[in-house]
Design a protein that fits this description.
Tyrosyl-Transfer RNA Synthetase, 5 strands, binds tryptophan, binds adenosine-5'-diphosphate
Length: 365
Amino acid sequence: MIFEVRVFYHQSGSKSREWPGRASNTDVIFEGMKKVSLTGIKPTGTPHLGNYLGAIRPALELAQTYQPFYFIADYHALTLTAMHNAPALRESIYQVAATWLALGLNPEEACFYKQSDIPEIFELNWILSCFTPKGFMNRAHSYKDKVAKNVADGLDSDENINMGLFGYPCLMDADILMFKSHVIPVGKDQKQHIEFARDVAHRFNNHYGKDLFVIPEPMIREETDVIPGLDGRKMSKSYGNTIEIFLEPKALKKKIGSIVTNSQGVEEPKDPDTCNVFKLFKLFATADQSADLAARYRAGGLGWGHAKAELHGVLESTFSEARARYNVLMADTALIDKILAYGAAKARPVAKTLIEEIRETIGIP
Ligand code: ADP
Ligand code: TRP
Protein backbone atom coordinates (compact mmCIF):
# COMPACT_ATOMS: atom_id res chain seq x y z
CA MET A 1 0.00 0.00 0.00
CA ILE A 2 2.62 2.51 1.03
CA PHE A 3 4.75 1.57 -1.93
CA GLU A 4 1.87 2.49 -4.22
CA VAL A 5 1.38 5.77 -2.44
CA ARG A 6 5.06 6.61 -2.83
CA VAL A 7 4.88 5.96 -6.53
CA PHE A 8 2.00 8.38 -6.70
CA TYR A 9 4.00 10.95 -4.77
CA HIS A 10 7.00 10.81 -7.06
CA GLN A 11 4.97 10.68 -10.25
CA SER A 12 2.92 13.68 -9.26
CA GLY A 13 6.15 15.64 -8.87
CA SER A 14 4.34 17.49 -6.13
CA LYS A 15 7.35 18.48 -4.08
CA SER A 16 6.09 22.02 -4.35
CA ARG A 17 5.79 23.76 -1.03
CA GLU A 18 2.69 25.60 -2.03
CA TRP A 19 -0.25 23.73 -0.83
CA PRO A 20 -3.51 25.47 -0.23
CA GLY A 21 -4.59 26.47 3.25
CA ARG A 22 -3.05 24.72 6.21
CA ALA A 23 -2.67 21.37 4.47
CA SER A 24 0.71 19.74 4.73
CA ASN A 25 2.74 18.52 1.75
CA THR A 26 2.95 15.11 3.33
CA ASP A 27 -0.80 14.78 2.98
CA VAL A 28 0.11 13.76 -0.57
CA ILE A 29 1.94 10.72 0.65
CA PHE A 30 -0.94 9.85 2.91
CA GLU A 31 -3.62 10.63 0.38
CA GLY A 32 -4.13 7.12 -0.90
CA MET A 33 -3.60 5.58 2.48
CA LYS A 34 -6.25 4.63 4.97
CA LYS A 35 -6.09 6.35 8.35
CA VAL A 36 -3.14 5.15 10.36
CA SER A 37 -3.26 3.04 13.50
CA LEU A 38 0.06 2.74 15.27
CA THR A 39 1.40 1.07 18.37
CA GLY A 40 4.76 0.06 19.82
CA ILE A 41 6.04 -2.28 22.48
CA LYS A 42 9.29 -1.88 24.39
CA PRO A 43 11.61 -4.89 24.24
CA THR A 44 12.19 -5.07 27.97
CA GLY A 45 11.42 -8.76 28.49
CA THR A 46 9.12 -11.45 27.13
CA PRO A 47 5.67 -10.21 26.02
CA HIS A 48 2.82 -11.11 28.38
CA LEU A 49 -0.96 -11.34 28.44
CA GLY A 50 -1.25 -7.64 29.42
CA ASN A 51 0.63 -6.66 26.26
CA TYR A 52 -1.50 -9.05 24.21
CA LEU A 53 -4.89 -7.91 25.49
CA GLY A 54 -4.07 -4.22 25.95
CA ALA A 55 -2.15 -3.60 22.75
CA ILE A 56 -1.49 -6.52 20.37
CA ARG A 57 -5.00 -7.97 19.99
CA PRO A 58 -6.75 -4.61 19.48
CA ALA A 59 -3.98 -3.43 17.14
CA LEU A 60 -4.27 -6.53 14.97
CA GLU A 61 -8.04 -6.07 14.82
CA LEU A 62 -7.64 -2.47 13.67
CA ALA A 63 -5.60 -3.68 10.69
CA GLN A 64 -8.93 -4.38 8.95
CA THR A 65 -9.90 -0.72 8.83
CA TYR A 66 -6.67 1.25 9.25
CA GLN A 67 -3.20 1.26 7.72
CA PRO A 68 -1.29 -0.40 10.54
CA PHE A 69 2.12 0.68 11.79
CA TYR A 70 3.55 -1.63 14.44
CA PHE A 71 7.01 -1.16 15.82
CA ILE A 72 9.49 -2.30 18.39
CA ALA A 73 10.36 0.62 20.67
CA ASP A 74 13.94 -0.58 21.10
CA TYR A 75 15.50 2.78 22.05
CA HIS A 76 12.76 3.22 24.65
CA ALA A 77 14.01 0.04 26.29
CA LEU A 78 17.31 1.77 27.12
CA THR A 79 15.52 4.01 29.60
CA LEU A 80 15.61 0.98 31.91
CA THR A 81 19.07 0.39 33.31
CA ALA A 82 18.27 -3.34 33.45
CA MET A 83 18.28 -3.26 29.63
CA HIS A 84 21.84 -1.90 29.42
CA ASN A 85 22.74 -5.44 28.51
CA ALA A 86 23.28 -6.18 24.81
CA PRO A 87 22.36 -9.90 24.71
CA ALA A 88 19.22 -9.30 26.80
CA LEU A 89 18.10 -6.39 24.61
CA ARG A 90 18.78 -8.29 21.39
CA GLU A 91 16.87 -11.34 22.65
CA SER A 92 13.90 -9.24 23.71
CA ILE A 93 13.76 -7.46 20.34
CA TYR A 94 13.45 -10.84 18.63
CA GLN A 95 10.89 -12.01 21.17
CA VAL A 96 8.66 -8.99 20.61
CA ALA A 97 9.01 -9.27 16.82
CA ALA A 98 8.31 -13.02 16.80
CA THR A 99 5.30 -12.48 19.06
CA TRP A 100 3.65 -10.00 16.69
CA LEU A 101 4.35 -12.19 13.68
CA ALA A 102 3.21 -15.42 15.34
CA LEU A 103 -0.04 -13.75 16.39
CA GLY A 104 -0.91 -12.80 12.83
CA LEU A 105 0.79 -9.52 11.91
CA ASN A 106 1.01 -9.44 8.13
CA PRO A 107 4.30 -7.70 7.22
CA GLU A 108 3.11 -7.17 3.65
CA GLU A 109 0.14 -5.11 4.71
CA ALA A 110 1.54 -3.47 7.82
CA CYS A 111 4.63 -1.33 8.29
CA PHE A 112 6.49 -3.40 10.88
CA TYR A 113 9.85 -1.99 11.92
CA LYS A 114 12.28 -1.23 14.69
CA GLN A 115 12.18 2.33 16.00
CA SER A 116 16.00 2.44 15.78
CA ASP A 117 15.82 1.90 11.99
CA ILE A 118 14.03 5.23 11.47
CA PRO A 119 16.57 7.93 12.45
CA GLU A 120 14.07 10.68 11.57
CA ILE A 121 12.15 9.72 14.72
CA PHE A 122 15.10 10.80 16.85
CA GLU A 123 15.43 14.08 14.99
CA LEU A 124 11.75 14.71 15.58
CA ASN A 125 12.19 13.75 19.23
CA TRP A 126 14.63 16.63 19.62
CA ILE A 127 12.41 19.10 17.83
CA LEU A 128 9.36 18.12 19.88
CA SER A 129 11.33 18.23 23.12
CA CYS A 130 11.94 21.93 22.37
CA PHE A 131 8.18 22.45 22.15
CA THR A 132 7.34 20.50 25.31
CA PRO A 133 7.13 22.32 28.63
CA LYS A 134 9.40 20.66 31.17
CA GLY A 135 6.49 20.71 33.64
CA PHE A 136 4.72 18.11 31.50
CA MET A 137 7.57 15.70 31.97
CA ASN A 138 7.61 16.41 35.72
CA ARG A 139 3.98 15.28 35.73
CA ALA A 140 4.47 12.13 33.64
CA HIS A 141 3.15 9.13 35.61
CA SER A 142 5.99 6.84 34.62
CA TYR A 143 8.56 9.32 35.96
CA LYS A 144 6.54 10.31 39.03
CA ASP A 145 6.00 6.65 40.01
CA LYS A 146 9.75 6.02 39.91
CA VAL A 147 10.43 9.09 42.06
CA ALA A 148 7.72 8.08 44.55
CA LYS A 149 9.19 4.59 44.80
CA ASN A 150 12.69 5.96 45.42
CA VAL A 151 11.37 8.21 48.17
CA ALA A 152 9.37 5.34 49.73
CA ASP A 153 12.50 3.17 49.65
CA GLY A 154 14.50 5.91 51.40
CA LEU A 155 16.67 6.53 48.31
CA ASP A 156 17.65 9.76 46.59
CA SER A 157 14.60 10.80 44.52
CA ASP A 158 16.69 10.69 41.29
CA GLU A 159 18.20 7.26 41.98
CA ASN A 160 18.31 5.17 38.78
CA ILE A 161 16.47 7.84 36.78
CA ASN A 162 18.27 8.83 33.60
CA MET A 163 17.42 11.65 31.19
CA GLY A 164 16.03 9.07 28.74
CA LEU A 165 13.42 8.06 31.28
CA PHE A 166 12.59 11.67 32.04
CA GLY A 167 12.14 12.57 28.37
CA TYR A 168 10.57 9.22 27.43
CA PRO A 169 7.16 10.73 26.51
CA CYS A 170 8.78 13.06 23.93
CA LEU A 171 10.23 10.11 22.07
CA MET A 172 6.82 8.49 22.16
CA ASP A 173 5.29 11.67 20.72
CA ALA A 174 7.80 11.46 17.88
CA ASP A 175 6.91 7.77 17.26
CA ILE A 176 3.27 8.72 16.94
CA LEU A 177 3.40 12.04 15.10
CA MET A 178 6.07 10.92 12.59
CA PHE A 179 3.49 8.75 10.81
CA LYS A 180 0.42 10.98 11.15
CA SER A 181 -1.24 8.34 13.30
CA HIS A 182 -4.95 8.65 13.97
CA VAL A 183 -5.52 5.91 16.54
CA ILE A 184 -3.17 4.41 19.11
CA PRO A 185 -4.32 1.10 20.61
CA VAL A 186 -2.77 0.85 24.09
CA GLY A 187 -3.50 -0.03 27.71
CA LYS A 188 -4.69 2.62 30.17
CA ASP A 189 -1.16 3.28 31.49
CA GLN A 190 -0.33 4.98 28.17
CA LYS A 191 -3.25 7.40 28.12
CA GLN A 192 -1.31 10.33 29.53
CA HIS A 193 1.47 9.86 26.97
CA ILE A 194 -1.03 10.19 24.15
CA GLU A 195 -2.45 13.31 25.74
CA PHE A 196 1.07 14.77 25.64
CA ALA A 197 1.33 13.85 21.95
CA ARG A 198 -1.99 15.58 21.25
CA ASP A 199 -0.88 18.67 23.11
CA VAL A 200 2.49 19.06 21.41
CA ALA A 201 0.92 18.41 18.00
CA HIS A 202 -1.61 21.22 18.57
CA ARG A 203 1.10 23.52 19.91
CA PHE A 204 3.34 22.95 16.88
CA ASN A 205 0.56 23.19 14.29
CA ASN A 206 -0.77 26.40 15.82
CA HIS A 207 2.64 27.98 16.14
CA TYR A 208 3.51 27.48 12.48
CA GLY A 209 -0.07 27.82 11.22
CA LYS A 210 0.13 24.56 9.33
CA ASP A 211 -1.46 21.18 10.06
CA LEU A 212 1.73 19.19 9.82
CA PHE A 213 0.70 16.76 12.53
CA VAL A 214 -2.46 14.71 12.84
CA ILE A 215 -3.95 14.83 16.34
CA PRO A 216 -3.90 11.21 17.56
CA GLU A 217 -6.65 9.50 19.59
CA PRO A 218 -5.93 6.79 22.14
CA MET A 219 -7.90 3.58 21.69
CA ILE A 220 -8.31 2.02 25.11
CA ARG A 221 -10.94 -0.68 25.57
CA GLU A 222 -12.62 -0.70 28.93
CA GLU A 223 -12.64 -4.48 29.27
CA THR A 224 -8.90 -4.74 28.68
CA ASP A 225 -7.59 -1.41 29.98
CA VAL A 226 -5.79 -2.91 32.99
CA ILE A 227 -5.15 -6.66 32.93
CA PRO A 228 -4.47 -8.07 36.40
CA GLY A 229 -1.25 -9.96 37.04
CA LEU A 230 -0.58 -12.96 39.30
CA ASP A 231 -0.92 -10.82 42.44
CA GLY A 232 -3.95 -8.84 41.25
CA ARG A 233 -1.97 -5.66 40.58
CA LYS A 234 -1.59 -4.48 36.96
CA MET A 235 0.26 -7.17 35.02
CA SER A 236 3.65 -5.65 34.30
CA LYS A 237 7.22 -6.74 33.68
CA SER A 238 8.27 -4.26 36.34
CA TYR A 239 6.15 -6.00 39.00
CA GLY A 240 7.34 -9.51 38.08
CA ASN A 241 3.70 -10.70 38.04
CA THR A 242 3.33 -11.58 34.36
CA ILE A 243 2.05 -14.58 32.45
CA GLU A 244 4.09 -14.74 29.24
CA ILE A 245 2.04 -15.40 26.10
CA PHE A 246 3.94 -18.40 24.79
CA LEU A 247 4.84 -20.38 27.89
CA GLU A 248 5.03 -24.13 27.27
CA PRO A 249 2.06 -26.02 28.82
CA LYS A 250 3.91 -27.16 31.95
CA ALA A 251 5.42 -23.76 32.70
CA LEU A 252 2.04 -22.17 32.01
CA LYS A 253 0.41 -24.50 34.54
CA LYS A 254 2.98 -23.50 37.14
CA LYS A 255 2.45 -19.79 36.49
CA ILE A 256 -1.33 -20.11 36.67
CA GLY A 257 -0.89 -22.07 39.89
CA SER A 258 0.71 -18.99 41.44
CA ILE A 259 -2.25 -16.65 40.76
CA VAL A 260 -3.28 -15.35 44.15
CA THR A 261 -6.75 -16.49 45.29
CA ASN A 262 -8.53 -16.29 48.63
CA SER A 263 -8.69 -19.07 51.21
CA GLN A 264 -12.22 -20.29 50.47
CA GLY A 265 -12.62 -24.08 50.51
CA VAL A 266 -13.79 -26.18 47.55
CA GLU A 267 -17.43 -26.44 48.62
CA GLU A 268 -17.96 -22.75 49.28
CA PRO A 269 -19.81 -20.68 46.64
CA LYS A 270 -17.44 -18.14 45.09
CA ASP A 271 -17.75 -14.74 43.45
CA PRO A 272 -16.33 -14.90 39.91
CA ASP A 273 -16.29 -11.12 39.56
CA THR A 274 -13.66 -10.59 42.25
CA CYS A 275 -11.47 -13.51 41.15
CA ASN A 276 -8.33 -12.87 39.07
CA VAL A 277 -8.49 -16.34 37.54
CA PHE A 278 -12.00 -15.67 36.25
CA LYS A 279 -11.13 -12.15 35.08
CA LEU A 280 -8.46 -13.60 32.81
CA PHE A 281 -10.61 -16.56 31.74
CA LYS A 282 -13.41 -14.25 30.60
CA LEU A 283 -11.08 -12.38 28.25
CA PHE A 284 -10.31 -15.51 26.27
CA ALA A 285 -13.48 -17.59 26.58
CA THR A 286 -16.72 -17.38 24.61
CA ALA A 287 -19.74 -15.80 26.35
CA ASP A 288 -21.24 -19.29 26.89
CA GLN A 289 -18.04 -20.65 28.42
CA SER A 290 -17.87 -17.63 30.76
CA ALA A 291 -21.52 -17.94 31.82
CA ASP A 292 -21.06 -21.64 32.49
CA LEU A 293 -17.93 -21.18 34.62
CA ALA A 294 -19.48 -18.23 36.51
CA ALA A 295 -22.46 -20.43 37.41
CA ARG A 296 -20.10 -23.15 38.68
CA TYR A 297 -18.29 -20.56 40.85
CA ARG A 298 -21.58 -19.47 42.40
CA ALA A 299 -22.91 -23.00 42.95
CA GLY A 300 -19.99 -24.09 45.16
CA GLY A 301 -18.04 -27.32 44.69
CA LEU A 302 -15.51 -25.65 42.37
CA GLY A 303 -12.02 -25.39 43.88
CA TRP A 304 -9.35 -22.92 42.81
CA GLY A 305 -7.47 -25.79 41.19
CA HIS A 306 -10.47 -26.49 38.95
CA ALA A 307 -10.82 -22.84 38.01
CA LYS A 308 -7.12 -22.64 37.19
CA ALA A 309 -7.35 -25.76 35.02
CA GLU A 310 -10.14 -24.03 33.04
CA LEU A 311 -7.93 -20.99 32.51
CA HIS A 312 -5.08 -23.24 31.39
CA GLY A 313 -7.40 -24.91 28.87
CA VAL A 314 -8.61 -21.68 27.32
CA LEU A 315 -5.08 -20.21 27.09
CA GLU A 316 -3.78 -23.37 25.49
CA SER A 317 -6.49 -23.35 22.86
CA THR A 318 -5.90 -19.65 22.18
CA PHE A 319 -2.11 -19.78 21.89
CA SER A 320 -0.84 -23.28 21.12
CA GLU A 321 -0.77 -22.84 17.31
CA ALA A 322 0.76 -19.38 17.55
CA ARG A 323 3.34 -20.74 20.01
CA ALA A 324 4.50 -23.24 17.39
CA ARG A 325 4.95 -20.37 14.90
CA TYR A 326 6.73 -18.32 17.56
CA ASN A 327 9.22 -21.12 18.20
CA VAL A 328 9.93 -21.47 14.47
CA LEU A 329 10.57 -17.72 14.18
CA MET A 330 12.79 -17.59 17.25
CA ALA A 331 14.91 -20.29 15.66
CA ASP A 332 15.31 -18.14 12.51
CA THR A 333 16.27 -14.65 13.65
CA ALA A 334 17.78 -13.94 10.20
CA LEU A 335 14.24 -14.08 8.83
CA ILE A 336 13.05 -11.65 11.51
CA ASP A 337 15.91 -9.30 10.54
CA LYS A 338 14.77 -9.42 6.92
CA ILE A 339 11.15 -8.75 7.78
CA LEU A 340 12.08 -5.78 9.97
CA ALA A 341 14.41 -4.36 7.32
CA TYR A 342 11.59 -4.64 4.78
CA GLY A 343 9.27 -2.80 7.16
CA ALA A 344 11.81 -0.04 7.76
CA ALA A 345 12.26 0.37 4.00
CA LYS A 346 8.52 0.97 3.71
CA ALA A 347 8.22 3.30 6.71
CA ARG A 348 11.33 5.42 6.23
CA PRO A 349 10.32 7.32 3.09
CA VAL A 350 7.15 8.39 4.89
CA ALA A 351 9.24 9.69 7.81
CA LYS A 352 11.77 11.37 5.51
CA THR A 353 9.09 13.27 3.68
CA LEU A 354 7.56 14.65 6.86
CA ILE A 355 10.90 15.54 8.45
CA GLU A 356 11.94 17.45 5.32
CA GLU A 357 8.79 19.47 5.53
CA ILE A 358 9.22 20.07 9.25
CA ARG A 359 12.78 21.29 8.75
CA GLU A 360 11.67 23.70 6.11
CA THR A 361 8.80 24.89 8.29
CA ILE A 362 10.98 25.60 11.31
CA GLY A 363 13.74 27.25 9.29
CA ILE A 364 16.46 24.64 9.13
CA PRO A 365 17.50 24.62 5.46
P1 ADP B 1 5.17 -3.54 30.83
O1 ADP B 1 4.30 -2.71 31.76
O2 ADP B 1 5.08 -4.98 31.15
O3 ADP B 1 6.59 -3.03 30.74
P2 ADP B 1 4.83 -2.28 28.29
O4 ADP B 1 4.96 -0.96 28.99
O5 ADP B 1 5.94 -2.70 27.39
O6 ADP B 1 4.54 -3.39 29.39
O7 ADP B 1 3.47 -2.27 27.48
C1 ADP B 1 3.31 -2.43 26.08
C2 ADP B 1 1.83 -2.26 25.74
O8 ADP B 1 1.05 -3.20 26.47
C3 ADP B 1 1.28 -0.87 26.12
O9 ADP B 1 0.28 -0.50 25.17
C4 ADP B 1 0.63 -1.11 27.44
O10 ADP B 1 -0.43 -0.20 27.74
C5 ADP B 1 0.07 -2.51 27.26
N1 ADP B 1 -0.02 -3.17 28.56
C6 ADP B 1 1.02 -3.58 29.35
N2 ADP B 1 0.56 -4.13 30.48
C7 ADP B 1 -0.80 -4.05 30.43
C8 ADP B 1 -1.84 -4.45 31.32
N3 ADP B 1 -1.58 -5.06 32.47
N4 ADP B 1 -3.12 -4.22 30.95
C9 ADP B 1 -3.42 -3.60 29.77
N5 ADP B 1 -2.47 -3.22 28.87
C10 ADP B 1 -1.18 -3.43 29.20
N1 TRP C 1 5.52 3.66 25.88
C1 TRP C 1 4.93 2.43 25.42
C2 TRP C 1 4.99 1.40 26.54
O1 TRP C 1 5.65 1.58 27.52
C3 TRP C 1 5.66 1.90 24.20
C4 TRP C 1 5.58 2.89 23.10
C5 TRP C 1 6.62 3.64 22.63
C6 TRP C 1 4.42 3.23 22.31
N2 TRP C 1 6.20 4.44 21.61
C7 TRP C 1 4.86 4.22 21.39
C8 TRP C 1 3.10 2.82 22.33
C9 TRP C 1 3.96 4.81 20.48
C10 TRP C 1 2.21 3.41 21.41
C11 TRP C 1 2.63 4.39 20.50
O2 TRP C 1 4.36 0.42 26.45
